[in-house]
Amino acid sequence: MAAPVLSPSRRLRRTPFSDGVEAAGVRAYTVYNHMLLPTMFRSVQEDYRHLKEAVQIWDVACERQVELRGPDAGRLMQMLTPRDLRRMTPGQCYYVPIVDETGGMLNDPVAVKLAEDRWWISIADSDLLYWVRATAIGWRLDVLVDEPDVSPLAVQGPKADDLMAQVFGDSVSDIRFFRFGVFDFQGRDMVIARSGYSKQGGFEIYVEGSDIGMPLWNALMEAGRALDVHAGCPNLIERIEAGLLSYGNDMTDDNTPHECGLGRFCNTHTAIGCIGRDALLRVAKEGPVQQLRAIEIDGPPVPGCDRWWPLTANGKPVGRVSSAAWSPDFDTNVAIGMVRMTHWDPDTEIEVAAPDGLRKAIVRESFWL
Amino acid sequence: MAAPVLSPSRRLRRTPFSDGVEAAGVRAYTVYNHMLLPTMFRSVQEDYRHLKEAVQIWDVACERQVELRGPDAGRLMQMLTPRDLRRMTPGQCYYVPIVDETGGMLNDPVAVKLAEDRWWISIADSDLLYWVRATAIGWRLDVLVDEPDVSPLAVQGPKADDLMAQVFGDSVSDIRFFRFGVFDFQGRDMVIARSGYSKQGGFEIYVEGSDIGMPLWNALMEAGRALDVHAGCPNLIERIEAGLLSYGNDMTDDNTPHECGLGRFCNTHTAIGCIGRDALLRVAKEGPVQQLRAIEIDGPPVPGCDRWWPLTANGKPVGRVSSAAWSPDFDTNVAIGMVRMTHWDPDTEIEVAAPDGLRKAIVRESFWL
């Protein structure tokens, strides 16, 4: 039987770049923040090879923004995360775990500090707007919280600097990692950060105003012809190799940041005001009892991982795999999984219950990049 | 080019009934509350015909529950909605618009009052859990808020009573509309309400515990053979004919309940404590300037409505269509659209910018059922 198609509806929002994505021959989508996110153009393996060798334009408009504006914007931002934001300056981007009152993760966005009283939170797949706005109201903060008409467009791949320079000028290469600058495109200001959901290098352009979306898409496509530019998207294989986590896949609100290996983005002791701080103090001190790990799975290419695959040792449960794919470059199955501390040491041999049967697997010291 | 497929991933959650849905030959999905929701089995028209003549089992596990439990559960529930809940008793279900501090709709769920201190909110497509939990924390309420392992399974169609009686006994027919009772299935308690997202009659079973999902699915399928039972799903054509709204399609957080024609579910004056009450008092008194209407669209069957189609009169914008389909029974295109008050009177002639060009359309007095 053919793979089920995705039924179109207004509820699954199109993006300012959807016309370009369709013209480029998108073959598969996922849904992310009630919006269409392409997942494949040629094939996942062809897209992967091309991403590592050339440059791609990604419609990641589904990374919606939650904008905080007003005198209490900074206070509210600190209430959301155990990362200490006191030294963050306008022009910086921070990866910030967002936690609830129990320390469970609600989202793992990038916070963009535009000014002392203005922030964008570039969110993963959950309606963080609801959490932030209800918090602002409940605590009577003087801050406006909404979703602006801002849609990120990513330029990723080793030739990203070359392409961006042609459209925005050479100074775009001066942007440092997780910093942003403001650049002109056809008379419009664009926030451009050196960031993105791959380890191949590149930028994210925060496109303000849907009307300028396709002109920018077309300008990048045109300028990149000699660089073999293609439409692309976050690549399953590459992101697992690189250990880039996916909220909803690799972690949920059941997990603390420490379980997700994000302890380095938590300053639980000094993040005064964070709603989940009390709950996290103990886990920050003692460490978690399970943690995400890179896992190598034996055998031929695994099928798609559409549910948690149990991890066992001698038949006893020790965790679960949440993302997995065959890696052509490393000639093995690469995976991300939550593993109990009894079995999380490097080179521990465990088993994974894949859909086609039990396979051998090994816990790795680090990801593949 | 073939319609884009939906990429499977753990993030798009399977349901306790997914194995049954797949065995029944699901052909299309949508994503709803980060979960798979079937949209088509044979064809939308065949499913529609069968729904109106027989009985269907629907996997609507994506109607996730937000559970409120504790001494402040009732107070919190009233904070969420402008519907006055004071006379609601355990055993009742209420359709409740949920609004933010500006009166904008955040969700349009069914609230199930299990006990004075325990509620389920059976939600439409947005992470209402985030709003409710942050509200509980911000206002320091004594209430537990979480998502329990409860997955609704709907039995819809004219033969729904016959089928349900075979599995749960004749007394299931005594359940009145939007009331519920507790029934036994294999030693497990099941909350069963007379409700559902069609106008063909039927029930929703709140299945508590994923492990009992497939046994119940199979028991219903087995018991319904002589009734021509089939796997089904909310049907686009039938729900438009019936005027059943879809959050994210027909309304967003830009719209008040009154704009959505839900004024009869608002008692803004007496719903003391509702967060959006102040903002809604004026619109409750003066009425909205635009409102959802049934709209009949001329011409051959319309294509799928995956974005707002502008409504115009003499070239001037007067609204937009958000849902549309060809209705075999009414031999016309049925649609739902937001229309400005200057053009919302019955029989007003307007135009709709469908993808294949401008078509004539007529505002109707009421929906088709």
Report on this model:
Two copies of one chain form a homodimer. With 369 residues, the first copy, chain A, is of the alpha+beta class. Chain A folds into three domains: 18-63 and 149-240, Gyrase A, domain 2 (2-Layer Sandwich), CATH 3.30.1360; 65-146, 2-Layer Sandwich (Alpha-Beta Plaits), CATH 3.30.70.1400; 289-369, Beta Barrel (Elongation Factor Tu (Ef-tu), domain 3), CATH 2.40.30. Chain A has helices at 18-23, 44-53, 73-80, 128-138, 160-168, 213-223, 236-241, 277-286; strands at residues 5-6, 28-32, 35-40, 56-59, 65-69, 93-95, 98-99, 105-107, 110-115, 118-122, 144-146, 150-156, 180-185, 188-193, 202-208, 230-232, 290-297, 309-313, 316-327, 332-340, 349-354, 357-363. A six-stranded mixed β-sheet of chain A has the order 13-14-15-12-4-16, with helices on both faces. In chain A, a hairpin with a 2-residue loop joins strand 9 and strand 10 (118-122). Chain A is globular. The two termini of chain A are 37 Å apart. Chains A and B meet through strand 1, strand 2 and helix 4 of A and strand 1, strand 2 and helix 4 of B. Strand 1 (5-6) of chain A pairs parallel with strand 2 of chain B.
**Gap from first CA to last CA of chain A:** 37 Å
Gyration radius of chain A (Cα, Å) is 21 Å
The coarse silhouette of chain A is globular
What quaternary form is this? homodimer
Chain pair forming the biggest interface: A-B, 51 and 51 residues
List the uncertain runs of chain A.
none
Spatial ordering of strands, largest sheet of chain A: 13-14-15-12-4-16
Question: Which topology of the largest domain in chain A does CATH recognise?
Answer: Gyrase A, domain 2
InterPro entries (chains A, B): GcvT/YgfZ/DmdA, GcvT/YgfZ_C, GcvT_C, GCVT_N, TrmE/GcvT-like
Domain GCVT N-terminal (chains A, B): 22-268
Protein name (chains A, B): Dimethylsulfoniopropionate demethylase
Organism (chains A, B): Sedimentitalea todarodis
